[in-house]
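Our consortium's second objective concerns turning raw sequence data into structural hypotheses that experimental partners can test. To show how far this objective has progressed, the report includes one record in full. It was chosen at random from the queue rather than selected for favorable results. The single chain below, 216 residues long, was entered without modification.
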Amino acid sequence: GVDRGVVITAALSDGQVLNCPQLTVKEHAQVRKHQRRAARAPKGSGRRRAECVQVARLRDKETDRRRDWVEKTSTMLARSFDTIRFEDLRIKNMTSSARGTIAEPGRRTAQKAGLNRAILAQGWGLLRTRTGHKAPGRVEDIPPAYTSLRCSDCQWIDKNSRKSQAEFVCSHCGFTCNADTNASNNVAAGQGGVPRPGPPGGLCRRDDTARAVERP
């Protein structure tokens, strides 16, 4: 099971945590410096073009690192596991613009734009695509709903179990786990989608027909 995120690019159900390499702090500072210089330079000037070239070179370096990481990671997944399951994320929808229209302008557009850049920098879609190429017929997509809120031990679903970005403590059985690893365990088990009605009190069965409900 592969759980993809922004803080941790890919958390695997066997406990591995994988991160796509990004530009260093120094390189990010260089990008901002060249962007500021380009903004101050006259339009169409050679100085402006030179600063834009420097920004493009740094962006190309980031892209090359991401592609290299994706190739190595997808090869490792294809060679190490018989079945690989990903959350069926709609990345195009997740990274759509929040600007809105003139009549109905969007809210918090700067924060949304930053989140979009962070998602695209992780290479989520490319990792899924390349893994599918290298492991044909062995890659499955699981509905992403509730994978981060479901306890991978007892199947209880409660938003309060997700204590933080990194900590998951089940409010029903007390199971404790890294939040991303817990989600990847649910993906590996194919536990996604909307929970069906369960027995009174929301308790869950542990067989293949396990059903869960949100805590009342």
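The partners drew two points from this record. The chain is about 40% helix and 10% strand. Residues 196-216 have pLDDT under 50 and may be disordered. Both points have been shared with the crystallography group to help prioritize constructs.
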